Each structure stands twice: as C-alpha cells, then as structure tokens.
Amino acid sequence: MQDVLRWFILLCGIVFSYIIIRLLLKHKINARNSVAWLLSVVAVLLLAAFPGGLDRLANVVGVQYPPTLMFLFSTLVLLLIVLYQSMQISTVNEKIRQLSQHVALHDLDNDLLAREVRGAGASAVGKPPQKSVNPPTPAPSQEWLQ
C-alpha cells in the first residue's frame, strides 16, 4: 500500500472518530450506538497501520483476494447494525403505543370529570346530577417509564 493511501485512510479514520465523539457529546447519538461506530474506526485505523494484516487474515481464512474479505466483514457489520437498530425501533414503537394509550385514558378521565363538574353545576339550578356511565378505569401499567 502506498504511503499516500495509508495517510489518507488514517486521516479518514481520525475525522470519522472526531465526528462520532462530537455527535456523542451533543447527544445526537447514544453511547450504545457510538460503540459500534468507534469499533469500526479502530478497524479502519488498524487497516491503515498494518496493511499486511488483511492479507495474512485472508490467507488464514482461505480467501484469495483480500479486499473481498474486507467487504464481507463490512457487510456483516452493517447487517448487525441494521438488526440492532430494528430492535431499538420495535422497542420504541411499543413504548409509544403504551404511552398513547396512557394519554388516551387520561383524556377520557378528564372528559368524564368535566361532565361530572358540569352535572354538579346543573343540579344547583334544580336539575339532578348526571352519573357517569363508565366505571373508573384502573391505572395503566407504568412499564413504559422504565
């Protein structure tokens, strides 16, 4: 590998690590996600520092063309990241569903309370108070807070 290419790869790794750390400090990315990206930066920096390492690893695994091994590892890492992100999205969607149900129950309680208050005001002028048709609902599960 030429020296210019090694320095370019090294510079790319340093810039990428700076971007990841800056995003982490600005809370644009959480610590769990940043670990995967920082590990990829370490891999890039190791590749720049030891370019023969990929050739040796390809020989051990039995791959004839070392860049193919690099693309295979890159693809596997990206698939793992996508799987992890999908798991996070599913968890967040479930929490959003629970939260929206919780808010809907509170809105229903507020509406029933407002009707009772209006009914109590009507009884002051001679009308009987209206009773709520629905029994009080139990408090929803607080799992979404955890």
UniProtKB/TrEMBL annotation:
At the top level, the lineage of the source is: Bacteria
List where this protein forms a coiled coil. Answer: none
Keywords, alphabetical: Membrane, Transmembrane, Transmembrane helix
Renumbered residue ranges of the record's region Disordered:
121-146
The residue ranges crossing the membrane are 6-25, 37-54, 69-87
Query: By its UniProt entry, which Pfam families does this protein fall under?
Result: DUF2304
The reply to whether Membrane figures as a keyword in the UniProt entry is: yes
Q: Which InterPro entries match?
A: DUF2304
Please report the name of this protein according to its UniProt entry: DUF2304 domain-containing protein
Organism, as annotated: Paenibacillus phyllosphaerae
